[in-house]
UniProtKB/TrEMBL annotation:
Heme c binds at C676, H680, M725. Keywords: Electron transport, Heme, Iron, Metal-binding, Transport. Binds 1 heme c group covalently per subunit. InterPro entries: 6-blade_b-propeller_TolB-like, CBM6, Cyt_c-like_dom, Cyt_c-like_dom_sf, Cyt_c_ID, Glc/Sorbosone_DH, Ig-like_fold, PKD/Chitinase_dom. Residues 497-583 form the PKD domain. One of its GO terms (molecular function) is electron transfer activity. Residues 201-237 are annotated as: Disordered. Coiled coil: none annotated. This is Cytochrome c. Residues 201-213 have a biased composition (Polar residues). Pfam families: CBM_6, Cytochrom_C, GSDH, PKD_4. Residues 662-747 form the Cytochrome c domain. Residues 214-227 have a biased composition (Basic and acidic residues).
Length: 947
């Protein structure tokens, strides 16, 4: 490339513009070389930093009881939402106050032909405000009539904070059956012309096969989706489009699927062939309709029924047929199964779709089906791998257009222009879906991957530009403390402070003096660093508040009660953020100690006795020593924690002295990470049976662990009702068994409490690998003090497995982890080292170092030194020199090198230093597989970590 003669005088940012050579420079300078503007444009169109988004929770636990759908009023200042049991509530987004403005009588019960009842999905399902709400005050509600089997779309006037019952006008009624579950829909959205879109579920039984619903036998009409979703003359299993009129009636807009007057059709139908369509949205630029569609439960393809189940996110550019119950996903066909004769027929043909069911009252020939826009099963998706695997429940979400928010306070950045933001109720992610100029799918990416939005039943942009997520909560058919309304704010310029509030103690006797702390509070804007202002407000039980204008005040409480301490941090631009603590004054927490007087206090050595003693004292209750506290009031539990679980994390989640054994808490942790809580509760029914019911059913069944673990992974139906159990193919067999062991443990009596002192011999439970750890725990709950509630304190000793992997080291110096084609953790260069904090070496005789020194990787080998407290600390042991070993085959088994240790008492930082003076800073010394601390009186742990 020719360089301009004054190349060195041209600003560096403009030099790339010289690629056209010497003579092009004037033209380039006069055209597009505007680095400042280009940089600004790049920042505006590129992906924004996640820390520019703030997640604000607007509601408190207990304020929402089964929220279903929301709509925005007064430019987004108020959010109106409905609850399934009939509540209509308003949230003031400036004060965060929630107020109930009305109640709609609704049905929430199914009653089958035998007279048996059960909770129904239906109730008050949907709400939307009229586009001209500011002048006409109209809101539309979709609900299950309390007396007759029908779903009703009706209009009311909302005046101020009152839903005027006298203004009710019924717009549309849809006859339903309410003998059997399921699927109601209820999502609504208006377009620019004032047309209202309404999603309507199929109102059909979920088959035990978890597949399509095609049962044409007499008496099984509720199990035939050809009578609803596949019926052109029925409004169920559809998305309707109507134009509501001022008098409460409606007209049919042009462009619906069937023109007015077409025989055996309903003109309200815009799209048909839906199983359970949820929240609809419209692209304001293209007019395309988008929605989430919940699919059936089958976890595998079968030769009997056809494809496995898929959830879908769909796009309709015009009126059309979307396949159900004949096709799913990208038009995967079901088989024409004859239930009467149990014969499998031919797969349905997309070119010739025939509804010949005796339950069909509509057209026999159906339109050609549209493919799903996005589809995914329980297991991993080949087409859309980013969606992951697990339970699924496609909700929907909005398409972002900047033109919709010209006067908004906080619009999302241009990067999201034309992207569809979608959320899954079960999986908790939000995806930003990118489409090309024609609306075709291009890609997707996680939005705020560090956040979870589980139980999201509705999501939309407010006129303010903020994204709102309405979260239903964990369990079906009940109010949930974790139901909430969340606002996601985009901060284009100045960012709010990220607040961390803490205290040196949160409870104590009077007078109680605590030190409040703002340590950890930060602001991502450089100009705010070191310039934040802090204010603590401490509010007592009488509502009186005291303010402290400092970051870390010391506060003394003289009166008993529960106090709220709120820290508010303000930046230089006036932006604020807050976090609160609860302080209980007037009751000192108990003091609990658990001392091991014999045995190693870091490692679990099977069959090696531990001598222990528990002491408890409480300022108000007395102590064990003086007899005021009796031994039965103290819980002492020692238990095994399975491999792959962090005993410390288990301890933090094992707070109740009456809980099951700690090893079963691993099962509860796994279930908390999955979607189990959406369908099951401990002792009450939700969609599925309670865990106690399952435990009782399989109490004496020796095959139950294997059977139930397989069912957790593969899914199933027919045992507890018409709801199929979701498949969980992402779970390992071991994790599924861990979950099942917890459930079956509910048959057992409460865990045996140990005496307050004595000897305990820890053992590996049957069926466990022996690679886990042990959790020793003592806990006491005091009696409370006056108006101050009871407090629980505990002492926990965690005994980790003596076989440590290098990735878990607290200090890693000059290391390299490689995961392709297999895991390998290399020590690089002379004196590279690993360090583990505060290990008790009492009784430890040697360390078995399992390593690989392979010429194939260029490893040079060397000596492993064991040192105390520092990499150059006291040498207490070392291995022989380990030389390279030529592998026999592709996978080389690890070499076991023993480092005998000098007798050492107590806790120390322990360092493994890898020595080879010939190893330069870029040369591998060896690959470390495992470092096992061994007591010669105990056999070494079985197995070697995979490499």
């Amino acid at each position: 490339m020719l360089l301009h003669p004054y190349h060195h005088l041209i600003p560096r940012a403009l030099r790339p513009c010289l690629k056209w050579g010497l003579f092009a420079l004037p033209l380039v300078l006069l055209s597009h070389c505007k680095p400042a503007e280009q940089t600004a444009a790049a920042e505006e169109t590129g992906p924004p930093e996640d820390n520019r988004f703030t997640k604000v929770v607007l509601t408190q636990p207990g304020e929402l009881d089964e929220p279903m759908e929301m709509t925005f009023l007064d430019g987004g200042r108020r959010v109106l939402f409905v609850e399934r049991k009939g509540g209509v509530k308003l949230v003031d987004t400036e004060t965060n106050r929630v107020k109930q403005v009305g109640t709609i009588p609704v049905n929430t019960i199914y009653t089958n032909k035998e007279g048996q009842t059960r909770p129904a999905e239906e109730g008050l399902m949907g709400v939307v405000a009229h586009p001209d709400f500011a002048t006409n005050h109209w809101i539309y509600l979709y609900y299950a009539d309390p007396d007759e089997p029908k779903h009703v779309l009706a209009r009311w006037e909302l005046r101020g904070d009152t839903l005027d019952q006298r203004t009710k006008k019924v717009v549309l009624e849809i006859p339903t059956q309410r003998e059997e579950c399921c699927h109601t829909g209820g999502g609504m959205v208006f377009d620019k012309e004032g047309n209202l879109f309404l999603t309507v579920g199929n109102n059909t039984v979920n088959p035990q096969s978890g597949s399509s619903n095609l049962d044409e036998r007499p008496g099984h009409e509720n199990s035939d989706d050809q009578r609803t979703a596949g019926n052109t003359n029925d409004l169920r299993g559809k998305i309707l489009r109507i134009h509501p009129e001022p008098d409460g009636s409606y007209t049919i807009p042009e462009g619906n699927l069937f023109p007015v007057g077409t025989e055996k059709t309903r003109p309200e139908i815009y799209t048909m062939g839906h199983r359970n369509p949820w929240r609809p949205t419209l692209d304001s630029k293209t007019g395309y309709l988008y929605w989430g569609e919940v699919g059936p439960d089958a976890s595998e393809d079968t030769e009997e029924w056809g494809p496995r189940g898929y959830d879908e996110f769909n796009q309709a550019r015009e009126a059309g047929f979307f396949g159900w119950p004949y096709f799913i996903g990208d038009n995967k066909p079901y088989f024409d199964y004859d239930h009467a004769n149990e014969q499998v027929g031919a797969p349905f043909d997309t070119a010739h779709v025939i509804n010949d069911s005796p339950n069909n009252t509509g057209l026999r020939e159906l339109p050609a089906p549209h493919k799903a826009f996005i589809w995914y099963p329980y297991g991993p998706s080949e087409e859309f791998p980013l969606v992951g695997s697990a339970g699924r429940n496609a909700t929907g979400g909005p398409v972002f257009r900047q033109a919709d928010f010209t006067n908004a306070a906080r619009p999302f950045p241009r990067y999201f222009e034309g992207k569809w933001l979608i959320v899954d109720f079960m999986r908790g992610w939000i995806m930003a879906v990118t489409m090309d100029e024609n609306g075709n799918y291009e890609s997707m990416e996680r939005f705020l991957p560090g956040e979870s939005f589980s139980s999201a039943i509705d999501m939309d942009f407010s006129p303010t530009g903020d994204l709102y997520v309405l979260e239903y909560g964990s369990a079906w058919f009940r109010g949930n403390d974790n139901a909430r309304l969340v606002r996601i704010e985009y901060n284009a310029g100045n960012r709010k402070p990220q607040v961390m509030a803490s205290a040196d103690k949160l409870a104590g006797a009077l007078p109680l003096q605590i030190k409040l702390s703002s340590e950890g509070t930060k602001d991502y804007d450089k100009y705010d660093q070191g310039a934040l202002t802090y204010q603590w407000q401490v509010t007592g039980p009488d509502g009186n508040a005291t303010t402290y204008d400092e970051a870390n005040p010391t506060v003394t409480f003289e009166q008993p009660g529960t106090y709220q301490a709120q820290l508010t941090v303000t930046d230089t631009k006036g932006e604020k953020n807050s976090q609160s603590l609860e302080v209980k004054a007037g009751n000192a927490p108990p003091q609990v100690t658990l001392d091991l007087t014999q045995g190693n206090q870091s490692f679990f050595f099977p069959n090696q006795p531990l001598t222990y003693a528990v002491q408890v004292s409480d300022q108000e209750d007395g102590s064990l020593a003086d007899g005021s506290i009796q031994p039965p009031q103290v819980a002492v539990n020692f238990d095994y924690v399975p491999e792959s679980f962090d005993p410390i994390e288990i301890a933090q989640n094992h707070r109740n002295a009456e809980e099951a054994a700690a090893r079963f808490v691993a099962g509860t942790a796994l279930m908390a990470q999955s979607d189990c809580k959406s369908c099951h509760q401990l002792d009450t029914r939700s969609i599925g049976p309670s865990y106690q019911e399952v435990a009782a059913k399989y109490k004496n069944d020796k095959n139950a662990p294997d059977y139930l673990a397989n069912k957790v992974i593969s899914g199933g139906s027919g045992v507890w009702g018409e709801h199929a159990m979701s498949a969980h193919p992402q779970l390992s067999n071991e994790d599924a068994h861990t979950m099942v062991r917890y459930i079956l443990s509910l048959n057992d009596a409460q865990p045996q409490r140990l005496p307050l002192q004595g000897t305990y011999t820890p053992q590996v439970p049957e069926g466990e690998s022996g690679k886990g750890g042990y959790l020793l725990r003592a806990a006491y709950t005091d009696k409370g003090a006056g108006q101050v509630p009871a407090l629980t304190s505990e002492a926990v000793v965690v005994l980790r497995n003596p076989a440590l992997v290098p990735e878990a080291a607290d200090v890693k110096e000059s290391t390299q982890l490689m995961i392709t084609p297999g895991r390998a953790f290399y020590m690089v260069g002379d004196q590279s080292h690993l360090g583990y904090r505060q290990l008790d070496l009492t009784g430890v005789k040697q360390v078995m170092c399992r390593v690989q020194v392979s010429p194939r990787s260029g490893s040079l080998g060397g000596v492993i030194e064991v040192r105390l407290d520092a990499p150059d600390g006291t040498l207490i042991g070392k291995t022989d020199t380990l030389a390279p070993i030529q592998p026999q085959g592709w996978r080389q088994p690890p070499t076991e090198a023993v480092a005998p240790l000098e007798p050492t008492q107590g806790r120390h930082d322990v360092y493994f230093v890898f020595r080879n003076p010939e190893a330069k800073t870029d040369r591998f010394v060896m690959n470390v597989v495992e470092l096992e601390f061994q007591n010669t009186d105990a056999p070494p742990a079985k197995g070697v970590a995979s490499n």
